[in-house]
Write a structure and sequence with these properties.
156 residues; mainly beta; Rieske Iron-sulfur Protein; four-stranded antiparallel sheet; 9% helix; 35% strand
Length: 156
């Protein structure tokens, strides 16, 4: 199984590196550079291939707006996700249960972080801990859009 991933979100949001990456339309498959039709902030989903799980936007219309977020449960894939659109056309999917306790995190657009309401832990868009008391990151999952659905990748 190979994934075609766009440039990391940090590059896209990081200015010149992101502009260069978007301009080149770069992506990665293993260590080999390949052309990608996906936005530079996400993967090119492969609907129908094992591991790709559909999230119909009709079930979560809040994800159509920048700053929108939704708690998404996919029991058949053992997924409990926080899905958000932090910037136009760019989506993130994080494990939604805080690694410090059992509280659901929520995306705070102003902070550009997932925040736990119970103890104040904050996580970046890749799930890395920004503020404790959490010490373990949230798992992040590749997510991209095809038509009227988002597709999240999780190998099962």
């Amino acid at each position: 199984m190979s994934l075609t991933l766009g440039c990391p979100r940090r590059q896209v949001l990081g200015g010149l590196l992101g502009a260069a990456c978007v301009g080149l339309g770069c992506g990665r498959r293993g260590e080999e550079l390949v052309e990608s039709a996906a936005p530079a902030c996400g993967p090119t989903p492969s609907p129908g291939e094992p591991g790709w799980w559909e999230i119909p936007l009709s079930d979560h219309p809040e994800l159509l707006e920048v700053g929108g977020q939704a708690a998404v449960s996919k029991p058949e894939a053992f997924l409990e996700l926080l899905v958000a659109q932090p910037s136009e056309g760019c989506y993130l999917a994080l494990w939604r249960i805080c690694s410090h306790g059992s509280c659901d995190v929520a995306w705070e657009d102003e902070a550009q972080a997932a925040v736990c309401p119970c103890h104040g832990s904050m996580f970046d868009e890749d799930g890395a801990v920004l503020v404790g008391p959490a010490t373990e990151p949230l798992r992040s999952f590749p997510v991209g859009r095809v038509g009227d659905s988002l597709w999240v990748y999780r190998e099962v």
